[in-house]
Specification:
Mean pLDDT: 95
Radius of gyration: 14 Å
Order of helices and strands: EHHEEEHEEE
Number of strands: 7
Low-confidence stretches: none
Distance between the termini: 25 Å
Helix content: 25-40%
């Protein structure tokens, strides 16, 4: 059975989650760990991190964070680090996580959710709207999308 858990409610997954996202995205583990650790106890609405599990195996996940290395600090929250294991793709699990993120954003009091990507055509299938290219902190412009949070 596939389930989505929040790290805030299941903190025993913290170390595994930090390892997982770091290994999948090639980003320093400390960045993930620090964000996830803050999300466990913060009084702020974000960051929040979620794992998709099949039994006791992580098969995907995502985060809702304050800023995804974007210059547009006026937009929040950012849906980030969406990942589904290659063997699990094509089963609608990415769509399930995208929808889950929109529900979670609404529960946290947000009306919209944002993401940046270099993918064309994927997010549009799931009611995300392209709103423009905006500068990333690394200097390059990246495609930014928004979706309505779902109450």
């Amino acid at each position: 059975m596939v389930q989505i858990i929040g790290l805030r409610e299941c903190s025993e997954w913290l170390e595994h989650a930090a390892d997982y996202f770091s290994s999948r995205w090639g980003i320093d583990r400390r960045l993930y760990h620090d964000s996830m650790n803050i999300g466990l106890t913060t009084g702020d609405s974000v960051p929040r991190w979620y794992l998709m599990l099949s039994g006791d195996e992580i098969i995907g996940g995502y985060g809702l964070i304050e800023n995804d290395f974007m210059v547009r600090t006026d937009l929040c929250p950012w849906f980030c680090a969406l990942y589904i294991e290659p063997a699990e793709r094509g089963k609608g699990l990415g769509a399930r996580l995208l929808k889950h993120g929109r529900y979670e954003a609404a529960k946290l009091g947000y009306g919209k959710v944002y993401l940046n990507t270099d993918h064309l055509g994927y997010y549009e299938k799931y009611d995300w709207r392209y709103i423009g290219d905006f500068p990333h902190q690394c200097g390059d412009d990246t495609r930014v999308y928004e979706a309505d949070a779902i109450a």
